[in-house]
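Retry 2 of 3 after timeout on previous attempt. Resubmitting structure tokens to design endpoint.
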């Protein structure tokens, strides 16, 4: 569950560090990867994202990417690369899940044949 946005931050300008975080967020990185890229801990990255959401009054990471693009912090090419990265990641996850399913089915089939009456004779 996310923290409620702080009203008193609304409309304040983003700091230089928050803009760095916003750019990485807009290019599809999660808080852990933002932290690694900037040499900060995950919690610090998470807090920076929360502060950006408060200041912009935008709660969606996707809409924050549009915001970053609209403000000129990221280019359309960076967005295209982020989309391609996410699509590759989704395909890999789909393949991984398919392999897990096939593996489970094979184990079930093997277990059933080992315990079938025909294999007992």
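Retry 2 succeeded. Sequence:
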């Amino acid at each position: 569950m996310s923290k409620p946005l702080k009203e008193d931050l609304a409309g304040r300008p983003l700091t230089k560090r928050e803009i760095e975080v916003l750019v990485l967020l807009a290019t599809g990185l999660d808080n852990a990867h933002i932290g690694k890229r900037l040499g900060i801990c995950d919690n610090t990255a998470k807090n920076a994202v929360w502060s950006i959401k408060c200041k912009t009054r935008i709660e969606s990471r996707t809409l924050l990417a549009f915001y970053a693009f609209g403000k000129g912090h990221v280019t359309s090419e960076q967005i295209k690369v982020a989309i391609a990265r996410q699509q590759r990641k989704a395909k890999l996850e789909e393949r991984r899940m398919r392999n897990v399913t096939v593996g489970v089915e094979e184990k079930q089939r093997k277990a059933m044949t080992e315990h079938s009456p025909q294999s007992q004779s």
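Attempt log closed. The two ends are 57 Å apart (CA to CA).
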